[in-house]
Amino acid sequence: MKIGVGRANLAFPDDLVLFGFGPKGGHGYNADDVLQVRALWIESGAERLLLLSYDMVSGSQVVEELLLAAVQLEKHQLLMVGTHTHSAPGRYFGNIYDLAQWPAGLDMTVVDELVRKGVVAARAALSSVRSATVSVAQRVLWQAGRNRSYAPFENNFEQGVAGWSAELKNELGIEMPAGLPVEEQAVDPRMTVLTFRDETGKAFATWASWCCHPATSRPGERRPYHRDWPGMAVDAMENATGVELAIVHQRANGDVTSLPVGAAAQEDPLGRMRTIAEKVVEQWASAVREPAKGSTLFTCRRWDLDPTTTDATVEYGALPSWEIGAAVTGGSEEVPAGLYTQWFGEARVLPWRDGAQAKKLPDPTTILAKSWAARALFNRANGRLGPGEKPRFRLAPSPRHPFWILRLGSHMVFASPFEQTTYAARTAERALRHAGASTLSPLGLASDYAGYVTTPKEFALQNYEGGHTLYGTRQLEACIAIWTYLARSSV
């Protein structure tokens, strides 16, 4: 195995619209923190992968396509992932999520900078390649995040959170601390740490994953660009352990918030970021320092889902047309709830509706985007494009959703562009446990952004996460089928 590392600072002008918190996200400006892209080149035999970790909300197929041409790699050899900070620019997706802020549409200022600095980081990684091994360790971290959608989570178990506690203990050997509020019990506390060591045994790079939304800053008209707790954590890791590069990503973060129990807003955002980062680094650093036998095994597989068709290669049921539920625009996550949500609760349902999108009440964006008038206006605007020009964005999610399986030593990562809720990820992990890996971890926000994935029981309640599960009750089933197919082909 050979590993290379690199990085570059992102430089955006002031006043770009920020992704995160929807239309209330505001505009960003440059202050003390600097957004970055971090590169990890992994090579083993014929396998090659360039992992680019951006301090952005997620990956982007538009950006990936331009990067592939610039660095001359194949599609399955480049994986762009976001740390999911909510204090970075949006409008770089080329899909309906470019409508989440105003002004709307693809912003080539953002796209060009992501591509330019991605190439700089990639070249640095390719110029620093050395022989290495990889080892995996796991740690447990409580009391640094809580489940913001406790009712849907609890709906997965007949005994409520006691069922989750029993599963953690009996299947994973994890004891839940006494006295935790139920919202803090309803998370997956595991942190996965991959450590890369050179021929002398010295750790020089590490890649960790843990779950907590980096949405710690307050919504506002103007907010500084900021990496949130992941940025503080990687800086502290490099200082504490001497590694050249630290990367941290989201596991099952879909329903996990950094807001303390009972809090409607962060009283001290920077202090909360620092507290979370310190707790993460305490566990992360101990895992990196732990002596471990390394491996040189690495394989990666990618498969793109076209949700409008079925594929005989992978067996899953037909998915319905995409919909974003009304709960998504009703005021939730870390955005102060609107009057409707305060009075009637977060869930927005059509009780009499049946089928694959059962009980989902579509939000206005979905209705508008699928309307004849919107499509006509969009097609008319695109008809004015010059020869060879592409539309600036789509009035829909991306036409294909990338799925990944990565094997590093005895560990397997299953990735997608969806934010996975705690128990959706755990359900997938249980389905994949016979895939020949000793440990598994989910990874969201990979190669694109495409909302959430929930369990059918969570989807039924239509809170924020269920409303933002684009393809209904069978979406998780399709995800598991694809990951299972990729896992088998990666052995």
Please outline what is shown here:
With 491 residues, this protein is an alpha/beta fold. Helix content is 29%, strand content 22%.
Architecture overview:
The chain has 491 residues and is α/β, with parallel strands linked by helices. It has a domain of 261 residues. 29% of the residues lie in helices and 22% in strands. The strands form seven sheets. A five-stranded mixed β-sheet has the order 6-5-4-1-8. A four-stranded mixed β-sheet has the order 9-11-12-14, with helices on one face. Strand 4 and strand 5 form a beta hairpin. Helix 1 crosses helix 2. The longest helix is centred in the middle third of the chain and has 21 residues. The chain starts with a strand and ends with a helix.
Note the main attributes of this structure:
four-stranded mixed β-sheet, alpha/beta, 14 helices
